[in-house]
Design brief:
35% of the residues lie in helices and 28% in strands. By secondary structure, the protein is an alpha+beta fold. The chain has two domains: 154 residues, Ribosomal Protein S5, domain 2; 119 residues, GHMP kinase, C-terminal domain (Alpha-Beta Plaits, 2-Layer Sandwich). Helix 7 packs across helix 8.
């Protein structure tokens, strides 16, 4: 903390695979996924204040209760029975909405930052429980690195970090709302609803991931490509520009490509950027240890190992 201001990174994520199963009684879908932290990030500043105030350098982002960052702050206050204030400022760099988890990441970072600012000392499992009340992806952003997600996405199992991968993220100028993406799947597009079959599918994908293979699969791709051909075009452009493979992240509309060397990635970035119809970002995967180190002084809130 410098001059009374605490600054923390808020990292984006991609999904190495994402399988969508049947709808639950609570209205959510069961999923099976592999989350991966990446270096693309927002920066969030925290200062003491009498009131709870959110500001952002991107005017398109709401700064009221429609923002997960404010919801996180309010749920944290309620959980600890405090009525403290803070000024939270987001320097937005993660494209939104884009399937990169920017809002969920911001919410998790707010939980960590305000826990330090307000001197709350929550246990890690307590933070994870609070995060699950905010949104399905939020708990992952307290773990970082590589992790499996199941249930509605809130059940997190950290796994051994994969070797660093060089990424290029292409974002077409189109919004794919998450609820609409789920609706567009249709029951015939969902992975088998047999619990036993789903478990087998998840286990096979997880084993491939842990062994070092990348099982790049996303059940949203057919539906999103059908309704938003610009997203399919972005994937094709990444592969044509030299990516080893590419995949839709989350429910879109961002697509990430994997590159075997930085020269090829930079050439591809220049090529895709010049097309004028894509925003393009270079990023790398980050390990759980690097995630933990960059979250200082919140390190004491995060387990040293899982």
């Amino acid at each position: 903390m410098k001059d009374g201001v605490l600054k923390l990174p808020s990292f984006a994520k991609i999904n190495w695979f994402l399988k969508v199963f049947g709808k639950r009684e609570d209205g959510y879908h069961d999923i099976c996924t592999a989350f991966q932290s990446i270096s693309l990030r927002d920066t969030i500043s925290f200062e003491s204040s009498d009131d709870l105030v959110l500001a952002c350098d991107d005017q398109r982002l709401p700064t009221d209760k429609n923002n997960l960052a404010i919801r996180a702050a309010e749920i944290l206050r309620s959980s600890f029975g405090v009525n403290l204030g803070a000024r939270i400022t987001i320097e937005k760099r993660i494209p939104f909405p884009g399937g990169l988890g920017g809002g969920s990441s911001n919410a998790a970072t707010v939980l960590l930052g305000l826990s330090v600012l307000w001197n709350l000392h929550p246990g890690f499992e307590e933070l994870v429980s609070i995060a699950a009340k905010i949104g399905s992806d939020v708990p992952f952003f307290l773990y970082g690195g590589t992790a499996l997600g199941s249930g509605r996405g809130t059940d997190i199992e950290p796994v051994r970090d994969l070797p660093q991968r060089l990424l290029l993220i292409a974002v077409p100028d189109i919004h794919v709302p998450t609820p609409e993406a789920y609706k567009s799947l249709g029951r015939t597009r969902l992975t088998s609803e047999s619990a036993e079959t789903n478990l087998i599918v998840c286990r096979e994908l997880a084993e491939r991931l842990i062994s070092g293979s990348l099982p790049l699969e996303n059940d949203f791709e057919p539906a999103v490509f059908r309704t938003a051909p610009e997203v399919l075009a972005a994937k094709d452009e990444l592969i044509s520009a030299g990516a080893e493979d590419a995949l839709l992240s989350g429910s879109g509309a961002s697509v990430f490509g994997i590159f075997d060397n930085d020269d090829r990635r930079q050439d591809a970035k220049q090529k895709l950027s010049s097309s004028g119809n894509l925003r393009v970002f270079a990023a790398e995967t980050i390990s759980r240890e690097r995630f933990r180190q960059t979250m200082n002084p919140c390190g004491d809130l995060l387990p040293k190992r899982f």
